[in-house]
Amino acid sequence: MQKREKIYEGKAKIVYATDKPGLIIQYFKDDATAFNALKRGTIVGKGVVNNRMSGVLFTLLGKKRVPTHFLETLSDREMLCRRLDIIKIETIARNVVAGSLAKRTGLEEGTPIREPVLELYYKSDALGDPMINDEHVRMLKLATPEELRWIRRMALRINGVLRPYFRRKGLLLVDFKLEFGRHAGRLWLGDEISPDTCRLWDVKTGERLDKDRFRRDLGGVEEAYQEVFRRVVGRAGAEGEASGSGKRASVSEPGRAGAEGEASGSGKRASVSEPGRAGAEGEASGSGRRDLTP
Ligand code: 5GP
Asked: Alpha helix (H) ranges present in 113-242?
């Protein structure tokens, strides 16, 4: 497999062509942005975490009848994928109130949701990813009604797989964003599944272990990504990386800071609630603006 020219560079990833027209390489960067790129920074090792974690989760989903664009993890920061024509809809699935849903409804962050809630957003940087409904999707010709039905069904299936999976790792899957695309006459799940695109709270402490630490200046950002890596990718990822050196999993680059370090400590907020359990005294829901990173 030969890596060819850069096709696209987004805020968190670079997409390269390959010598096979239907295949691309996703390269995961450490760059982080939030609030439509008004806030910018670097999360050391994030690209490694997001690449390896997405590989693990896409593999899991593939076994559970979710077609994904993922083919193979090539390196710490690169994965081989099917080339998708991305549908300009961001699908959000929610299990617990947080972020823009708290802002929109006035419900406290941490409030459990009995049935998962799905939301659609128009993937448009220029417009700031506004929320849309099925009729807007039809009007804008973003997807056919049949495609949209499939997207909703898949989003619920993905939630049904990921939520208990994360639960076993001591993580509450609060909400997450999905992107789908067309390839070879059918739809596939694309993009990534990572702490950039999911809210993940520690089940015991309610500590936020995702990009909200960056968005909300909670500190311990790298440590949170490391912790998720450790729980989700664990030794499998570590072995790929340390290749027999006996070294423990570390997502930071050699010679760069951020791998070790104590648990993130500060910034601990909302206590965790599963449906049927007590709600949480969450912090303010941040600015409530949509984070628009790809
Ligand atoms: P909210 O609408 O509450 O801001 O976000 C809901 C969920 O979708 C969160 O898990 C958040 O990380 C994810 N999400 C929503 N929009 C984006 C986006 O543009 N980029 C990324 N990386 N994640 C998003």
From this structure: 134-140, 145-168, 212-215, 221-232, 234-242
The contacts of residue 214 (CB under 8 Å, 6+ apart) are 32, 34, 39, 41, 43, 221
Q: In one letter, which amino acid is 203? A: V
How far apart CA 209 and CA 211 sit, in angstroms, is 7
CA 29, distance to chain mean position in Å, is 14
175 lines ligand 1 (CB under 6 A): yes
pLDDT tens for the chain, 294 residues long, are 899 999 999 999 999 999 999 999 999 999 999 998 999 999 999 999 999 999 999 999 999 999 999 999 999 999 999 999 999 999 999 999 999 999 999 999 999 999 999 999 999 999 999 999 999 999 999 999 999 999 999 999 999 999 999 999 999 999 999 999 999 999 999 999 999 999 999 999 999 999 999 999 999 999 999 999 999 999 654 444 433 333 333 443 333 333 323 333 333 434 434 433 333 323 333 434 455 443
Cα–Cα distance measured from residue 199 to residue 163, given in angstroms and rounded to the nearest whole number: 11
* Rounded (10°) angle between helices 46-63 and 234-242: 120
Ligand 1 atom closest to 290 (CA): 4
State whether the beta carbon of 291 lies less than 6 angstroms from ligand 1: yes
Task: Specify the residue with its C-alpha closest to ligand 1, atom 7.
Answer: 176
Residues 207, 108 contacting (CB under 8 angstroms) = no
The atom number, within ligand 1, closest to the CA of 90 reads 16
How many other C-beta atoms lie within 10 A of the C-beta of residue 53?
25
Separation between Cα atoms, residue 224 and residue 209, nearest integer Å: 5
